[in-house]
Structure formats: structure tokens, C-alpha cells
């Protein structure tokens, strides 16, 4: 199919995500483009994709699709479980968010980064090492994210001047 005939359609999250959740609960996997900056520096807005699946045995460090308020969905890392209470943190965020286990609807099983065809599995050594390191850098994350934002802006400026 020629590229000229492909159209991008934007659908609001409050419409799209409930349909994705239904598909996940039916046992399907769903791949969608990442929106937002909360999982920076490793997942970029409108660039990377995530493959989601259903799950019921949640683990610390899972990247989960959660509803943190009515019709407000996030894809963040699960950092603490205390009974029914869940604490989430986006890799690019400094503050945590909270919900209950019943508000968790899916888990990331793979990421397609930088327009690559091959996915990085969340069960792979690369992702586990990254997760381990990044979570231990929380005390200095604010500074690392600041430097990353400067780097991204410089890349955009350089790209625009070419």
C-alpha cells in the first residue's frame, strides 16, 4: 500500500483506553504509540510504541497501564505494593501516583524504540538492567532529567538547522 493513502487518526485517551482494556481482558495484546513524557528518557512521546498484555500477578518494576483517576490513564512503573494499594512512578517523573490493584489493566511486555522493527522485551536482560540502574538513580533523577531535556532541545535545534 502506498504511503500516501495511510492516515493517522487521533482518538482521545478516554475513548481509546477503555477499548484497549476490553481487548486486554479478552486475552489480546495491543501495541500502541506512547503519548506523553512521563516515561522519559527511555520512551519518547509519539516516537516509541509499547506492547501491552493482560496480567494478574503484578510485580515490582512492571510497567503497567493504570487508571489513577476516573478516565485518567498512565503507563508507569509499579514501585510498591501494599495489600490493595499500588504506588506508581513514571521514569520521567519525580512524584509518585497511587491507585488500587483493581485499577491496573495491563502490563508492558515489550517496547519498540526509535522506530525499530524489533522489540525490546521487558523480560530481557537489557530492560532489567536498565530498570535496576534507573530506580537506584532516584535521588539524582531530577538532575539527570534536566540534562536530558537540554540534550533533546539541542538535538532538535541541530536537526532544524540542517
What does this structure look like?
It is built from three helices and eight strands, in the order H-E-E-E-E-E-E-E-E-H-H. It is an alpha+beta fold and 162 residues long. The mean pLDDT is 88. Strand 5 (85-89) and strand 6 form a beta hairpin. It has helices at residues 13-25, 125-136, 141-161; strands at residues 30-33, 49-53, 63-69, 72-82, 85-89, 97-100, 104-112, 120-121. Strands 1, 2, 3, 4, 5, 6, 7 and 8 form an eight-stranded antiparallel sheet that branches.
Beta-strand proportion? 25-35%
Report the C-alpha radius of gyration, rounded. 17 Å
Following the backbone from N to C, one meets helices and strands in this order, namely HEEEEEEEEHH
Largest sheet: 8 strands, antiparallel
> From the helix content, strand content and strand pairing, which structural class follows?
alpha+beta
How much helical structure, as a percent, in the residues?
Answer: 25-40%
Unreliable parts: none
Overall shape: it is: globular
Q: Treating each run of at least 4 consecutive H or I residues as one helix, how many helices?
A: 3
